[in-house]
Amino acid sequence: MLTPESRASDFPTLADRAYLNTAAEGIPPASVGAALARYFADKQQGMDGRKPHAAEWEALKVVTAEFYGLGASEIGICSCSSEAYNLAALALNLKSGDEVVVNDLDFPAGATPWLQPSCPATAKVWRARNGGLRVEDLGPLLSPKTRLVTMSLVSFFNGFTINLPEVANAVRKHSPALLAVDVTQALGRVPLALAGADLIVSSTHKWSLGTHGGGLVGVPAARASEWTATAGGWFNLEDAFGPNRFERAVSKPGAASFSVGMPNYPAVYAVRAGLEYIRAVGVREIDRVARPLVLHCLSELQKLPVELLTPNEPERVAGIVAFRHPRADELNARLHAANVHVMCHAGRLRVAVHGYNTIDDVERFLRALRAAL
Fold first, then answer.
1. Which of 6, 8, 159, 231 sits a CA distance of 20 to 30 A from 113?
2. What is the pTM of this model?
3. Tell me: the pLDDT tens digits for 127-168?
4. Run of H or E including 323
């Protein structure tokens, strides 16, 4: 991933293009394809394939726990981050008078369950200032009524990275709230230090190099009673087939309650392979190599006639740089014609740099952008 040789062998589709869109879709290494082939071989064994399926499930929990700084028993696996947050809403069982703090840099999955008419709690919005979420603006939103503060470690919108210890201290100082952290735009790209988080969520098809169909949930054992989803199902229940199964349903506590039905085993195989690939390369090594490319891109964009959305704060930058331009769609079309791939949405262009990117990718993007401008 970090050498020309490994890039060519593990990511052959990157040979003739500058792919800078991992924040939307990661490019899986060849080992993920091999894992999917292994799933198919196991599935062809019929019921006998359940044993290797279960082994992959347990192995994925182990490797996820390593990244999250938890134990394997504190990991749950569901289908996506949206499912995880909706199950979290069931677990909280909010009442009228409760308050939830969301923010305007967050992805919809983490914010919208608390904005639905069916949610009786009052949602307050922590609004970004100068492109970032400032902890001094959070305190006034907190009170004894605050049940939850939810945020992304790295914003999908502009790449702003929160200082989690600072935020956790503010939350504990002003309220009894739980703290939920989405690490989708960080897992596999930057080292994680998640102490203080009461719920950790990630999707699996971006920086962690897996496929769609996975949601990785972390619930510290001390918070298991507060994050037990009361969803119907069977895989999440204590005794789904016992003699009293039509009289009551009891969820497994904590993270296990987020795994509601038959696991998506193809994704389990793929996500495990993606995370193990990242672990073998080393997240710190990925960040060491990729971070200078991100900062170079940010610095050069400051010289161009675009509206930067990412704050010029190097300590708050992970893998994403974003900017606006009134001709964003046209610029994106010209970039694409030059075989440079970024995200374009509603006037916003977003550049994402991972460990398989090089300085040549970034310079190719900058050349194409300058020409298009």
1. 159
2. 0.96
3. 999 999 999 999 999 999 999 999 999 999 999 999 999 999
4. strand 320-324
